[in-house]
Amino acid sequence: MERSTIVRVHEGLHARPATRFVKLAKGFESDVELVKDGKAVSAKSSVKLMLLAVKENQEVTVRAHGADAIEAIEALIGYLENPKAGLDDEDSQPTGDAGPKAAVGSAPTASGAANALRGVAASEGFAIGPAFAHFPPDIAGQGRVLRAEEIEGEIDRFRTAVGAVQARMDHALAQDSLSAGDRGIVAALRDIAADDSLTGEAEGLIKGGNDAISAVITAASTIAADFSAVDDHYLNARADDVHAVGRQICLVLLGQDDVSLENIPEGAILIADDIGAWDLARAPLKRIGGVVCGHGGATSHIAIIARSHGIPAVLGLGGQVNALRTARDVALDGNAGHVIIDPDEATRADFAGRVEAAAKERAGLTVFKTVTPKLADGRIIEVAANIGSLEEIEAAQEAGAMGIGLFRTELLFMRHMHLPSEDMQAETYAALAKAFAPYPVIVRTLDIGGDKPIAGIEFPDEENPFLGWRGIRMCLDRPDIFKRQLRALLRAAVHGNIKVMLPMVSDISEVRQTRVLIDECTVELKAEGVPHASFDLGVMIETPAAVLIAPALAKEVAFFSIGTNDLTQYIMAADRLNPTVAKLNDVTNPAVMSAIEMTAKAGVAAGIMVGMCGEAAGRPDLIATFVKMGLTELSMSPASIQRAKKAIMAMAAEG
To answer: Is-above-0.85 flag for pTM?
Structure first.
C-alpha cells in the first residue's frame, strides 16, 4: 500500500522530527519506506531518513507492506501533515533549530574589535572568563589487517561497544536532570548509534579485514560526508553528530574515557576544536560561562544546547581556534560572533559591564519567582503557565508558575501511535495536579482538528479546518474518545486542584451536552468502584459567538479563559498562519479588545473567574489593561511569568 502527501512538518524531517518519525514507524510490524523524488529509504532508519533531506512543503509517498500496513500509513501520513510534529510546544520560546536573533540594541564590541577572532554568532549574550581548553587527542585507526579467524570476534567486540554507547545514552535519557530539549538531541544521537547505516557500514568493513576502530572511523567519515554533501545547512551540521557517535564507539573499543568536562571552573569559557553534543549535554552546563568552538554553526546541536541553556556561544572559527589553546582569559560576543583573546583592561571593562547589565536584568526578574502578585485592593492575580507535556513542569516551576492555566492535551494524543488509554491519561493529569498542588491546574479537553490529525481519528477533508470539525465539536461527535478523557479527568480530580475547560465553544448546548457525558462517566466510575471526584467546568472564549453569548454562558460554567490567539484571528477574519495578513492579527485592535472587555464584564457580573491563556496574557504593556477589565488569572509560556509578575506589582505600586 502507498499514499502520497505534502510534508507540513516545520522545516522538514531534520534530527528530532526524523527521530520521532522513525520511532513511530518502528512501532509497526510492516516494512515501511518513505519515497521522495523517486528515491526510497527505510522509514525505520534515522540516518537514511535525514539524508533523504525531506523539507517542508515537499511531496513524499509512504509505502507499507505487512499486516498493519493500513494503520502504519495512516499514522505516518498524519505525522507528516502535522506542522508541529517532533518539535517543542507551539507557544514555547524557540530553543533550537533556528539561529539566534540579534539582540535589540546590540552594539559592536567596543574595544579590541579590530583584533577579535570572527566566527558564527550561535547563541546570543556576552561572557568573559578564564579559558578552559578542551582538546582531547584524535583517535586514529590501528591499520591492522585481520586474519579470517579474527573477524567474527572483532564484529562481536564492535557490537558490544555499540551496545555500551547506547546504554550510556539510555542512562542519560532516564535522568531527570536532562532538559526536554537536550533529551531530544540525545535521543537523536542514540538513534545514530543504533542505525544500520553506521553499524552496517562498519561491520562490512570489518568483514573485509579492517580492525573495528579503523572501520568505525571510516564508516563515520563516509556517512558524515553524505550529510555534508546535502544542500541543507541543518543536515550539514549532522555530520558532526555522526563523528561524535563514532568517537564514543571508538573510545569504548579502546577501553578509554573521553576527557571530562566535569572539572570546568565556574564561569569559564569552554574552548574546543569540536564538542560532541553528547559531551556537552551531560556537562555541568550551569558552570559554563560561554562556548567557543572551531566547528559547528547556528544549526548545530552544540548551538541548540547553548541557546536552550542561555550560554553565549561563538562557533565555526575553523583553524583560528588554535590561537585560543594557550589563552588565559577570553571575552566573547555571542551576538556579533566575536572572540577576544586575553582582552585588555578597556575590553574587560566593556564586557564586564555588558555581563553585569544582563545579570541584573535576570536577577531583577528572578526575585519575582516566589512573589504572589497582589493589587492595591488586595486582589491576587494568578500568573500561571501554558504547557503541553509533563516534561515542561520543571520549567514552569522554576519560573514561579502559580499553577497551570492551560494544559494542552493534544500532545498526549499526537505523540503516540494509538489513542492514549484512560489509565495513561489519568496518570498524566494526576502527575500534573500533584506537581502544582495546591495551585489549580486547568486541563483543556482535546482540541484537535483536520490541521492537527492524530492516529485513531479520521478527519474529513475540509476547505478550512480552522472553521470545521474540531475541538468540542469533534469530541461531542466521538463520545468514545471524549468519555475516555472525561473519565480520566474525573479520576485525576481526586487531588482537588483539577479544572477542565472546553475549546471552540460557540453554543450553550455544547456545554450542556458535555455535562450529560460527565454525569454518565461519574455514574459509571461509581458503579465500578473507581475513586473519582468532580471538577469545575469552564470554557475557552475564542469564537465571536462565545463572546456574544458570554452572559448566558457565564451562568453555565465556573470560569472563562480567553484564548486571544484564536479569538483574534476569528474576529479579524485573518488566518494567523498566513503572513500576508499578519498585520491584522493584532490583539490590540479595538475590535479584539472590545471582545475581551465584553467577556470580562459578563464573567465579573456572574461572579465567575475570568482568565486569559493566549499569547497576549504575557505582554507587560497589556497586563494592566486586562486586570482593570476584571481578569484575575493570566497564563503564559514559562519564560514570560516573572516579567508578568513584575508588571502586576508595578501596577499595584502605582495604586
So the answer is: no
